[in-house]
Structures are given as C-alpha cells and as structure tokens.
Write a structure and sequence with these properties.
- This protein has 351 residues and is mainly β.
- A hairpin with a 7-residue loop joins strand 8 and strand 9.
- The protein is 0% helix and 45% strand.
C-alpha cells in the first residue's frame, strides 16, 4: 500500500506545506470514443515461443451501464484499437477454453471468435464495475520472441458489435529466458496547496491561509485544496490528523461530532463542500468520482476529529480535487494569543 503524507500548520495565519508524489509517463495521444479501460494485466503460464500457455487476464471496466461482451484481440504491431491488426505469427486462440471467471461473470467464448480474437459473450446485464478475472487454457504462443499486444474492448452487445464502452491495450513478451507478467504500473498522485490550478499537482501553489483576527461576532474561515488520483484496484482514502487550534493551555473546541457554524461559540472544524453559512468552499470536482465521507460532505456542517477518513474512492479514479473549508469561532471571553495547529493529510492507495 502506497502512502502520501501532507502536513500544514494553522495559526492566525494557516501555514500549509504541500508534498506531491507523482507518477509521470509518456502517453501517445489517440482519438477516444469510449472510456479508457481501468487497471488491466496479463500473466502467461509459459512464455516460450510456440508452446501451449494459460493466459490469465485481470480487467477493470470503468463505464457504468450494460456489459454483454469483451473482445480480446491479439496483434503483433500495435495495442491501439483503431490501428490495423497484424495477427502474431504462430499464435492461435482457436482451441481456447475459458476455465475460470470472476467479477463480471456468466461469459462463454462467443462464435465470433477466431484464430487471434477471443470474444467473451453473455446475455447483456449491468456492468458491476468490479475487477474481473478471466483464465484461458489451450492458447498457443506466437512462434517468434518479441513483444505482442492484446487490444481489450468492452461492449453492451453480446457479440462485440456496435460502439464499445471501454478500450485499452496490454503488452506481453514471448521470450525463452523469462516468465513475464505485463501490467499497468501502479501509481498514486496526491498533493495539497492553498490553490491547485487544473488537475495537476505541479500547479499546487501557496503556503498560507490567513484567518485574520478571531472575533466572537463573526466566523473566521479559509480554504485549501487537495488533489488525488490513482489506478489502485480499490481506490484510495484521505485521512486527516492533528489537533485543534491551541495557544499555550488555551484551545478552540474541535467539532468532533459535527455542527453548524455558530459565531460566539468555541468551534474549529472543516468540510469538503460548498457552503452558505459562511459562504465558503466548493463541491469536489474533476473527472474522478471520489467523495467526502464520515460527515465531511454535508454543506454548512463542520467537523474535525483526529484520524478521520474525510474522502475516498472505492475504484481506480481519475484526478479529483477537493476544497477543504476551515471555520473558526470563538466566544467573547476567548483568551488572547497566537493559536496554532498542525494538521497532516494522508492519502492511502488500496492496491
């Protein structure tokens, strides 16, 4: 499990330090007509040329809706679905049998399969969006050492016809000397900042949020940003750690159970929503589907409890930006001083 940790300091001026861990790669830009397939991998039981092998596929379909078929097309020239496919020399899927399946199940090998294409077919039903595993026996490896590709597409139809829902490529190697498992490398991207332009951790900027002077007649408020993305099979969680604002032995009461903002009452809390009282914050945005949890996603209700998970995604997720809204209220008799808090954000990917 990969862990990213971000720390920030809250005073009358809130100091925030952003540490970003990014997975960086080079990607060819292709026309996209469906969604990119999620995490996928292929493991061969034998990778020598011209031998029979068991092919073990793991796939994560990300498009909700109906799933009736999955097409696995083996090519020697390219992993991209819109390129012409050259069948690998010596390869054969004609005798393939489906020996195991999990996740999205109920499939059989369809009649539209051929020597370099396997079409899994079932009565179209809802896609469970689960990580699915399919094991095939009886395939014959290509007769030449080198790199080969499997083009994976999912369809609502039961025969791989019509528009596809998800598409992605897998590379695998045929080599006498090695047993090779080819997979998409895991990554977790997480950062924080006073502001993050777009959905790129390289654009995280700013190190302070100023609460100004605390007053018993109005709420003091500020915001920071979090950005998270991962291809981990079970998504990620973001947790918060730290203490409420303190000055010596004086403190502002942490809203461990959650409450509305009440000027004149000792309160310190956060949430991850657009609020009216006070007017601060934004709802989560971005292509991802992660969301606030555990009471941190209720507008105009604020909470702070050390160790709480404040947001999560249960599936591989595209970049998702969260605005963290902080509120501070103090009573009329609050002791003067510089009130300080150290807060840590931790993002855990669940591979």
């Amino acid at each position: 499990m990969r862990q990213l940790r971000h720390s920030l300091t809250l005073t009358k001026t809130l100091s925030l330090t952003a540490i970003a861990l990014l997975a960086v790669g080079l990607f060819a830009i292709r026309p996209v007509y469906g969604n990119d397939l999620g995490a996928r991998s292929l493991l061969l039981s034998a990778n020598a040329p011209s031998v029979a092998s068991i092919y073990n596929f793991s796939l994560a379909s990300v498009t909700p809706g109906t799933l009736g078929s999955i097409q696995l097309k083996f090519c020697s020239n390219s992993p991209f679905y819109d390129d012409p496919c050259t069948a690998p020399s010596g390869f054969s899927a004609s005798a393939a049998t489906l020996t195991s399946q999990s996740g999205n199940t109920g499939f059989t090998i369809g009649t539209t399969s051929d020597v370099n294409t396997i079409v899994l077919s079932r009565i179209p039903v809802a896609n469970s969006l689960a990580i699915s595993n399919y094991v095939f026996d009886g395939l014959t490896n290509p007769d030449t050492q080198g790199s080969y590709y499997v083009r994976v597409q999912t369809f609502a139809s039961n025969d791989a016809s019509g528009a596809f829902s998800d598409a992605g490529g897998i590379a695998f190697s045929i080599n006498d000397a090695l047993n090779v498992s080819s997979r998409v490398p895991p990554y977790l991207s997480f950062c924080s900042g006073a502001d993050i332009t777009g959905y790129n951790c390289l654009n995280a900027t700013g190190s302070y949020v100023n609460f100004g002077e605390l007053s018993s007649t109005r709420t003091s408020a500020g915001t920071t940003k979090l950005l998270a993305a991962t291809n981990a099979e079970q998504g990620y969680v973001i947790a918060i750690g730290g203490t409420t604002l303190t000055s010596g032995n004086q403190e502002v009461t942490a809203l461990t159970a959650g409450d509305a903002s009440r000027p004149g009452v000792s309160q310190f809390g956060i949430n991850l929503r657009a609020n009216v009282a006070p007017r601060i914050g934004n709802d989560p945005d971005g292509q991802g589907i992660g969301a606030p949890v555990n009471g941190y996603g209720i507008a105009d209700k604020y909470k702070f409890a050390n160790g709480d998970v404040i947001a999560s995604s249960t599936v591989p997720d595209y970049p998702r930006q969260y605005t963290v809204s902080y509120i501070v209220n103090v009573p009329k008799g609050q002791a003067p001083g510089v009130y300080v808090s150290t807060i840590t954000y931790i993002c855990l990917a669940k591979f």
